Each structure stands twice: as C-alpha cells, then as structure tokens.
C-alpha cells in the first residue's frame, strides 16, 4: 500500500512587508514542498497584496517572486476575490477560459477565486496553518 501525498494548506492574512508572516509562510511552504508535501496557499485580507506584480523590496525577501517560485515547484496559490477587488486587483468578471478572475496587477502564479475555494482547498488537507490576523 502506497501512502498518499500529504498536503499542507496555508492562509495568509498579513501583507507581505509589514511583518514577517509572509516570509515565514513562504519558507515553511518551500520546506514542505522540498519534503514532498503538496502545498495550497490562500491569500486573504491584507495578504492579497502578496500577489502584486513588480514588487521591488530592497531589504526584504521579494514575496511575489517567492510565490512564483513556490508555484513552479507545485504549490497551488489562490487569492480571495472580494479582498482582491477591494484592493484594486480585479479588472473583470470570472473568465472560464483562464479559470480565474483576470488581473493586470497580480503575478501569474496566483489565481483569484471566491473564499469558498479555500474550503475546497482545505477539505482534503492533512494540516492547515494561518499566518497573521484579520
């Protein structure tokens, strides 16, 4: 009998540079991927700013780039549609072909979805972690 791949779900509430929550979240997600875990990340509240394209922090870890790297390693990354819309990341309605809400300000690694998709993300996960607070 082969063990199924274990999966870690993470919800990020904090913005990318106000605290170290996003840094720590990225490092834990990276470590989990390196150990063979599946990783699912959901950005919520101020955490949606982690999806911003063209971030250029001079003295901090570039969270947008880190999320892109996590995506390339197999992480699934989604962002709350209401939180994203309220912060200017939305440009139009859900696009069936793209399977996402389009955004001109978000990195390609992040798909904008409803909060209900977080429930779908965690229902089959082995562990759930949250970083920050609302």
Domain unit count: 1
Please count the beta strands (DSSP E, at least 2 residues each): 5
* Biggest sheet architecture: 5 strands, parallel
Mean pLDDT: 90
Q: Look at the structure and name the CATH superfamily.
A: DsrEFH-like
Global Rg: 14 Å
Shape: globular
CATH architecture: 3-Layer(aba) Sandwich
List the strand order in the largest sheet: 4-3-2-1-5
Distance between the termini: 42 Å
Helical content band? 25-40%
CATH topology: Hypothetical Protein Ychn, Chain: A
Q: What is the CATH class designation?
A: Alpha Beta
How big a fraction of the residues is strand? 15-25%
Structural category: alpha/beta
Describe this structure in words.
This protein has a five-stranded parallel sheet with strand order 4-3-2-1-5, sandwiched between helices. Strand 2 (about 40-45), helix 2 and strand 3 form a beta-alpha-beta unit. Helix 1 (about 20-35) runs parallel beside helix 2 (about 65-70). The protein contains four helices and five strands. It has one domain: DsrEFH-like (Hypothetical Protein Ychn, Chain: A), CATH 3.40.1260.10. It has helices at about 20-35, 65-70, 80-85, 115-120, and strands at about 5-10, 40-45, 75-80, 110-115, 125-130. It has about 130 residues and is an alpha/beta fold.
């Amino acid at each position: 009998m082969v063990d199924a791949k274990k999966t870690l779900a993470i919800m990020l509430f904090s913005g990318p540079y106000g605290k170290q929550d996003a840094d720590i979240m990225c490092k834990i997600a990276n470590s989990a991927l390196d150990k063979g875990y599946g990783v699912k990340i959901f950005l919520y509240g101020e955490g949606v700013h982690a999806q911003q394209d063209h971030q250029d922090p001079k003295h901090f870890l570039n969270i947008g780039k880190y999320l892109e790297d996590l995506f390339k390693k197999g992480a699934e990354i989604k962002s709350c549609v209401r939180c994203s819309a309220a912060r200017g990341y939305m440009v139009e309605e859900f696009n069936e072909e793209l399977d996402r809400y389009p955004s001109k300000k978000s990195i390609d690694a992040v798909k904008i979805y409803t909060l209900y998709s977080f429930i779908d993300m965690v229902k089959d996960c082995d562990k759930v972690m949250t970083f920050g607070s609302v």
